[in-house]
Amino acid sequence: RLGLVTGRDLAQCVRAGYPRWVSLFVYGAMELAVTGSDIQEVVGSAIALKLLFGLPLWAGCLVTVLDTLTFLLVHRLGMRYLEVLICGMIGVVAICFFVSAAQALEMSTDVGASMRKLAVGWAVPSLQPWGYEQSVATLGAVVMPHNLYLHSSLVLSRRVPIERHQEVHAAVWYSRLESGMALLFSFFINLAVVLVFWRHFYRVECASMEGGPYVCVGADALGE
Question: Would you tell me the crossing angle of helices 10-17 and 147-154 to the nearest 10 degrees?
Fold first, then answer.
């Protein structure tokens, strides 16, 4: 909404509306947020490549860096090309996890009970003491403050004249719809991810032990 109404992204508004020292402080905070988010994504991608293809962790990190450079090159061709590429990749990931989630439910001894527990957990969330750290990590991975700057800049590619209030109002409405659909879709993807990991990796005896789930993860978990 900020980008569509003002014609400027959040970073430009911060620079125009606050003193220089405040802008520098906000910039530093967002750089730390980006770094913290990217570290887990790079390491997670390296671990995934290790599990799938046997690549060393350092090689997986390099592949992830090359992926980022590829996205930047595609972005130079135009925002629409980048959006199509990312949507295609998300679609492939979503299909894989949805299929894996369906298989995980089929492998359950009581599918009905599993679905009921899933529905109850969805409606009335609860958290065990050993899950605090994982929940905070998940929240940090999903809710990224620096995305506010990114999204407020992305909507500027729509090129809506800010002096035409009716068009701006319509663009804001469609932006809300787009964001809502994206969040709903990502929710179902995350739900499928949780189902897959619950079936293949979760063990009650490990999670309830002192030290949480990590006590069951040995040094050979990644083939080291």
Answer: 110
